[in-house]
From TrEMBL:
<keyword id="KW-0472">Membrane</keyword>
<feature type="transmembrane region" description="Helical">
    <location>
        <begin position="50"/>
        <end position="77"/>
    </location>
</feature>
<dbReference type="Pfam" id="PF00822">
    <property type="entry name" value="PMP22_Claudin"/>
</dbReference>
<keyword id="KW-0965">Cell junction</keyword>
<keyword id="KW-1133">Transmembrane helix</keyword>
<dbReference type="InterPro" id="IPR015664">
    <property type="entry name" value="P53_induced"/>
</dbReference>
<keyword id="KW-0812">Transmembrane</keyword>
<dbReference type="InterPro" id="IPR004031">
    <property type="entry name" value="PMP22/EMP/MP20/Claudin"/>
</dbReference>
<protein>
    <recommendedName>
        <fullName>Transmembrane protein 47</fullName>
    </recommendedName>
</protein>
<dbReference type="GO" id="GO:0016020">
    <property type="term" value="C:membrane"/>
</dbReference>
<dbReference type="GO" id="GO:0098609">
    <property type="term" value="P:cell-cell adhesion"/>
</dbReference>
<dbReference type="GO" id="GO:0005911">
    <property type="term" value="C:cell-cell junction"/>
</dbReference>
<comment type="similarity">
    <text>Belongs to the TMEM47 family.</text>
</comment>
<feature type="transmembrane region" description="Helical">
    <location>
        <begin position="130"/>
        <end position="151"/>
    </location>
</feature>
<feature type="transmembrane region" description="Helical">
    <location>
        <begin position="89"/>
        <end position="110"/>
    </location>
</feature>
Amino acid sequence: MIMALASTDWLMAAGWRQGLFIHCIGDDAPMPLPFNVQDPPDCYQARDVAYIRAAAALCIITLLTDVVATLFTGLGLRSKDHRTKYKYYRVAVYIMVLSLISILIALVIYPVCFAAELNEGNRTVWEFGWAYGVGWGAAIFLFGGVVLLLCDKESEEIYYKERKIVHDSDSRA
């Protein structure tokens, strides 16, 4: 998520790269520039558009909640008591689901809202860059983390619910 947040390669066109916080204009950028921008070639703060700000905020929420969920998962792994472990895992799952929902909303609103302003883009070819793909990768890994935590929680329950009682047999000679 840090790479996706820091990159300017969410959306790309000829001479134009746009990230969540910065957009860059290349030296060879054909004129007119997209979205009526009149700046010389360099990198600038991202355009003040609601969907870019919303996607950035949701990605930051994803990063922070993922860190917290990872902390709770670590505490659960460290715990020896199965009840405490279950509580940590349950909290981690809820937080990871919140993180997953946040990144999915960000990854959907970004292209949908961009498509609404596509006519102002002044470019015929637009591509989503590798940073947008990293966001989808993070969503896939978050989903996998939720599934694995749910599976591990159930295996712990099975382990502690099954007990084997061994009786000493009186077959001593």
